[in-house]
Amino acid sequence: MIRWDWIADHLDDLAGRAGQHLYLAAIAVTVGFVISFALAIVSIRQRRLYAPISSVSGILYTVPSLALFAALVPITGLSVLTAEVPLTIYTILIYVRNIVAGFDSVPADVLEAADGMGYRSFERLLRVEIPLAIPLIVAGIRLASVSTIGLVTVSGILGDRFGGLGFFIFEGYRRSFPTEIFAGALPSVLLAVAVDLVLVAAQRRLTPWTRPPRLERVQAAA
Amino acid sequence: MNLVTDTTAWLADPRHWQGSSGIPIRLLEHIALSGVSLLIAAIIALPVGLWIGHTGRGATLAVNLANLGRALPSLAVIGLIVPVTAAIDPQLGFKVYPTVIALVVLAAPPLLVNAYAGVSGVDRDLVEAARAMGMRERQILWGVEIPVALPVIAAGVRSAAVQIVATATLGAIFGGGGLGRYLVEGIAQNDDGKIFGGVVLIAVLALSTELVFSIIQRRLTSAGLRREGAGADAKVLPVLEGPDATPA
Questions:
Q1: For B73, which of A66, A179, A188 is closest by C-beta distance?
Q2: What's the pLDDT at A222?
Q3: What separation in angstroms does the CA of B68 have from each of A53, A91, B15, B122, B138?
Q4: How far B98 CA lies from chain A's nearest CA (Å)?
């Protein structure tokens, strides 16, 4: 069913494509974050803008990725933009929702206390609001990363220069060679899971206060 | 605007509305593939979700599994199934089966989680009252829990349907039918009109699915719940913070 010898012979190719996969995903996840952070800040200050931002991105979200990749081909050709624009668009809805939810989760009395202590608006954002919003923001980064890694596979439709591990899925189908399809599919899933686990660990590191206190520390304090 | 004229010309060409690769047939293929997959997924996932919601057993396991299912990349899922089905049936094993199985796998989580969350979210006093009135467990489930939970269950069906319709597009990559064919062929043939015509058709189908299922969802909300405004905007319950599902 699966020819393991083929996989063993192509480990170099697989590693190279995995690198490309992460690279294509990282661009979208980063650019999407920057755009979304700005959009989220704007929608928090101007609540009226949140509904249109979220419904426009919601509509784009129902459009399948294959269609969005294809839609850009007549406009941007087979360039990196054709792959990155749809990937970035998909991250925006996830991010904006989570970042806005993160800022909404900051209790009003904490904000009042910060104001009472004389924090300026920007200082309050940087030192109070952002740190308290981090758990939900990181949850958004996790979702965006995992879904982008899944979608990078589909970008293989744009040709051999794209797709990361998805390249093997497309080539394997062209050659009617199930082993190659499998060799592209399994690592894509594993990559998504691995990145998710790394980000969970990062979230724990970034927000030590959300962890339950360790028993010995509590006892030492008492 | 070259693109607009190309697309309108492609869509308006009567030849594209006839024959086995015409728009009506491709649309029917797409809807049939999606409908069958949704039906199979519902037959499997809904009873399990209802049972977990009613008994409260296995809830954590189910939610975790559903969470995992939601993170699965759809194209990769199809790719994982191909070697198995291709070994069983070298002909159709490359085309139809992997897509249907993948669609079922991807649609099950929202169906299961919402059925579970809908039933377990029913006011416990209501269930206790039904029990005190002498209703049997089966009667409680069908007469009390399901009607009250229906808007939430329907929201899960809506989310699953939208995701299935979107993901069914990917079946075309593996030679399956449906509207995705126009995208795959358009890119291969460098035919902008065909690509954009396909994109328009798919976007319209995806948005219509969302619309039709949200109307059904509203209809299924009982009048009493609608008055309270509880069911009308019942959403898919997010397992993680975020949209209902990952894009296809």
A1: A188
A2: 52
A3: 28, 19, 44, 26, 31
A4: 12
Task: From B175, B164, B169, select the one nearest B90 (Cα to Cα).
Answer: B175
Residue B131 located in a structural domain: yes
B244 occurs within a structural domain:
no
CATH number at residue B28: 1.10.3720.10
Cβ-count burial B155-171 (b if 16+ within 10 Å, e if not): bbbbbbbbbbbbbbbbb
Cβ contacts below 8 Å, chain A against chain B, sum to 163
Chain A residues with beta carbon closer than 8 angstroms to that of B73: 147, 149-151, 153, 188-189, 192
Decide: residue B44, CB within 10 A, 0-12 exposed, 13-18 middle, 19+ buried. middle
CA A4/CA B143 separation, integer angstroms? 55
Distance from CA of B147 to the nearest CA of A (A): 28
Q: Which of B159, B203, B163 is nearest to B183 (CA)?
A: B203
What is residue B172's DSSP assignment? G
Range of the domain at B125: 2-12+21-228
Band (A168; pLDDT cuts 50, 70, 90): very high
pLDDT tens-digit map of A2-53: 888 898 888 999 999 999 999 999 999 999 999 999 999 888 888 888 888 8
Considering only CA atoms, give the Rg of chain B: 21
CATH architecture, range A13-221: Orthogonal Bundle (1.10)
Shortest alpha-carbon distance between residue B64 and chain A (Å)? 14
Q: Is residue B237 part of a domain?
A: no
- Which residue's entry shows tokens 């189910």? B62
- Is B243 part of any domain? no
How many structural domains is chain B composed of? 1
Distance (Å) of CA A19 to CA A28, A163, A191: 15, 11, 10
Task: Give dist(CA B8, CA B12) in Å, integer.
Answer: 6
Asked whether this complex has an ipTM greater than 0.95, the answer is no
What are the residue boundaries of the structural domains of chain A, listed by start? 13-221
pTM: 0.82
